[in-house]
Amino acid sequence: MITNRFIKKNEVKELQLLLHEAYKSDTQLGINFQAARVTLQHIENTATFVTEINHTIVATVSVRLPWSKNPGPYAIPHLGWVATHSQFSKQGYATQLIDWVEKEYIQKQLKAPMVSLGTAVEHPWLKRFYTSVGYQPVEMVQKTPDHLTVYMVKVLNRKFDQLESEQLKKYLNKNKTKVRY
């Protein structure tokens, strides 16, 4: 049985190990995502979701909230820590979980009009993957010396459907401190 849900407090250590293992290949590419060294406290303080199959966590995604101590770059929810357990990779579990989190948490509960995420421009396939599931590049920022971060946004509310990347960037930067949803 496949279940998508919030992480339980007693699963934080297990999730930390999954994240460290999943992000090892990125570190080998010279891309040092924060998820590769995420702390237990950070996981406990961030809305984190998992896909579970027969009592085994197979995928995860977190949501940084604009009003939290660790907000994303804009005043909208921000996805992070997207990872799949190596034994379950390339089966679509992370994609399904992202979709579920967008619909069930970000749209239905938070009623947010859009969601952002960031990834390394230098990564061989992540930007292409996120584009394929509806995210569009908005801006690039050199946050760390080892990679250039591209911030991407997915519009979840039809009201914003017609905004192109440059218009989205202007809207997001203009409303950085306003949370209106």
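That was protein one. Protein two is written in the same sequence-then-structure order:
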Amino acid sequence: MVLDRTRSKRSEIVDLLVPLRRYARSLTRDSLKADDLVHDTMVRALESRANLRPDTNLRTWMMTVLHNVFIDEQRRKRVEARHADVLVQLSEEVAPPAQEGQVRLMQIRKAFESLPEEQRAALHLVTLEGMAYADAAAVLGIPIGTLMSRLGRGRAALRAFEEGNQKGKASSSDDSPERGRAHLRVVGGN
């Protein structure tokens, strides 16, 4: 007897899928969101089935559950939007604009990448990774004197990039290819 009631309830729920989808589509105006809403309704209904009284009209109850799930989702979206607005306002007040930093980083990266590979490798190990000269030379498999030479040439190339940049700033009417490059500060190594 209990098994027959369970089968009966399942078939009633399956029969309600079409009207539930229709109602969900009228609320959401989007078939994918409507399907998600019906799914969430089914999950909530299964979670709440212990509260369902035997004499309850299943269709009315399921439509009510769907409506409540929809309203809950709308409230959650409004709260999230308010929180997002507050976070945006806080970030605008606290954080400086990132564009200049991003442009500067791109210019530094281009200058660094324009160096020959052996100079880039030496500068990377010593300046970015903070390795001692002897360790960097060991990693590259070269004598320490060769490492020092590569570091010197790489730093000189970066200084030349910087000096060309300074000249471009001093004479803005100059049409040299160095004109318009950003300031690059070279930090000496150990």
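DSSP finds seven helices and no strands in the chain. Keep this in mind for the problem set.
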